[in-house]
Amino acid sequence: MAQPMRTVLLGLNSPGYRSLALGYLRAYAEADSALAGRCAFETLDLDTSVDPWWAAWRVLGLEPDVLGISVTCWNARAVYEVCRIVGSVRPECAIVLGGPEVGPAAEDVLAAHPEVSAVVRGEGEVTFAGLLAELARGGKAWRVDGLALRRGDEIVSTPDRALVADLDSLPSPYLTGLLQPLDGGAYLETYRGCPHRCAYCFEGKGYGKIRSFSDARVAAEIEAVATAPGVKSFSFIDPVFNLTDGRLRKFADWMAPHVARGLRLHTIEVDIERVDDEAAALLREAGVASVETGPQTIGAAALAACDRPFDAMKFAAGVRALRAHGISCECDLIVGLPGDSAYDFLAGLRFCFDLDPGKVQSSTLHVLPGTGLWERALELGLEFDREPPHEVIATPDVSFRDLRRAEVMASSLQSIYRARV
Amino acid sequence: MIEFVDISLGDGPQVQCGRCAGSPERAAFRSGAEVVEEAGAACKGWSRGTGPNIRLTGAEPFTHQELPRIVAGVMEAGCRRLAIDTDAVALRSAQNAHGALSAGVRHIRVTFLAGTEGVHDALAGMPGIFDSTREGVAAYRATADAAQLPVSITVAVPVCRHNLRDLPSAVGAAVEAGADRVEMSVTDGGIDLAAAVPWIVAACDTGVVNGVWVEVGGVPFCMLAGYDMHLADAVRGRDGSKPPVCTLCPLDGVCGGAPVGASADQLALLAPPPFAAKLAPQIARARAQEVC
């Protein structure tokens, strides 16, 4: 009997986290009967502090036939370095990339990185398993939908793959035991998609409509993570946690026994303009200790350019409601959005500081593949780094030097804001 | 943007350029009760955004016998951010650093007259003060880090005729000392601003490339072309047109425009000492209009 195909899944995560995406990929592939006995999996959950050469060393030690890596804007440079090393040392290994950094620009990634064999476009679980099945049987990878890959000297894209209609058909990385929850570092996903279409963001991943996991699945995952040894807090990766009040009610009920013994949810992303006193009370009941929200900008021109609604009164009311219920709020701002001058950004900072939300965080715009800003960058006059993480360099509204000044000034102000009793 | 109300502890020896101004040899402190009362009033009527935030200025606070009582009183009055102007010498003692942090002092502002021990100490007329201050700042930061308490360290750099060439290195020293921010302000009424500006902008650049913000006071934004963000609190929403106050400014002929809708405080910030007197009537008028 032939040896199973050795498949290594590599995650280069933020320190303290493990890759939920790789958990999904592996859980689905391991449950796929077409791969039973034909594929052996190993997950290397490393973090971005690991030198890419040592990450490659770890990978090569496993002698993989297939290397799958999830790529985001902030780990991409390290990932490409790993790919170059692994591709040089073990050219027979098929390197497959997926994730938000590469999916929307799949053919360009293949053109720029000859050691990469294929790129998964969009939702990865079914496509990756299908690719492994073809590779395991020595079949034709170009028959698998949702891929960009090499066919001879050509780079081709296969037809788009339809989204998974029933998310419950994707086995849970937590319930299967593949992903061990870490205190503070465990994330749950209860739906895919995003109700908003902000032009700078790829959290919705172009999925369009929202698809949810079933209540039973979510409740079971909460139970598994909340009762895992050592877990005192975890979070949800959902772009908007407070989609509806009814949903918040369910979370409050599911979390109640765990909240009673001190478990907390941190850094929950909310649509704060929908948070009133009742919603804030439900968030508190659900054990939410801190939330993360916009406004990203308060500049009218930038809001319009980014297709983003903003109501200052509702936003402020949301922050007040959360504070009244003892929930810390992190207000996020982006510097370098099209339409925003440096002074618009500073006005946003002032707006946030005046609300006294608990934490104010600013970041520089990343023009991410797949986003509206990526597609309209030329039209909007956005100069940005084509190499990941795609930071904006200058815009028609703010110069390179003023962008850097705004970053430094914001950092200074944040330190002053944080230093309080 | 995050404002502090300055409350003086009294007069006393300070780190300042001894060639520009003498300093009282002996401290004349206000009573603790008086300071706390003023701080309490400031906290009670706070309407300046996130806060209340109080900064104790004037004489060296660690030589005030009632400092613990003052700090406790200010915190009791509801102060959220308490800053002190200090030479940080007392903070070299871990016990003092810990005590200050525990009492609620999360902001300190120290003064660097230059970037080197020799020049700083000579200008201050206080041998050894530069190193002592840096040691105190380091101890304060280390103690805060160990206790996981967020603190903010500001370095004030007064600008005068005697330290112009040292401004970039003073900012460099602030960076090295772990400052979060530098406040550079023209304090010398007789300074030639045109000669000072190149050194000031070089100091601003030194800060930015090292990740430390430099805020400039006492220079009209028209003289900081391309660097107006460093006057951020004074300059907002500029569209190039000038408010009426500019017509009497001695720089009107070369000025590209002042902030539209600038408040009296902002105008005051824009007016450096040599011109402040000439702008005083307009500032007073603007202030009166705001009151109305």
Which chain pair shows the most residues in contact? A-B, 26 and 30 residues
Helix content of chain B: 25-40%
How is the largest sheet of chain B built, in terms of strand order? 1-4-5-6-7-8-9
What is the subunit organization of this protein?
Answer: heterodimer
Q: Give the low-pLDDT segments of chain B.
A: 234-240, 260-264
Identify the overall geometry of chain B: globular
> How do the strands of the widest beta sheet of chain A line up side by side?
2-1-3-4-5-6-7
Could you tell me the CATH topology label of the largest domain in chain A.
Answer: TIM Barrel
Q: What is the number of helical segments of chain A per DSSP (H or I, 4+ residues)?
A: 13
The CATH architecture of the largest domain in chain A can be given as Alpha-Beta Barrel
Which topology of the largest domain in chain B does CATH recognise?
TIM Barrel
What's the CATH class of the largest domain in chain A, please? Alpha Beta
Bin the strand percentage of chain A.
Answer: 15-25%
How far apart are the first and last residues' alpha carbons of chain B, in Å? 24 Å
Q: What's the average pLDDT of chain A? A: 95
Q: What is the count of β-strands of chain A?
A: 18
Q: Fraction of residues of chain A in helices?
A: 25-40%
Largest sheet entry of chain A: 7 strands, mixed
- What is the averaged pLDDT score of chain B? 84
What's the short version?
With 421 residues, chain A is α/β, with parallel strands linked by helices. Chain A has helices at residues 20-31, 52-61, 76-89, 106-112, 125-136, 215-226, 245-260, 277-285, 300-305, 312-324, 342-355, 372-380, 400-418; strands at residues 5-13, 39-47, 66-70, 94-98, 118-120, 147-151, 154-157, 187-188, 191-192, 211-212, 233-236, 264-265, 268-269, 290-296, 328-335, 358-364, 383-384, 392-394. Chain A is 36% helix and 19% strand.
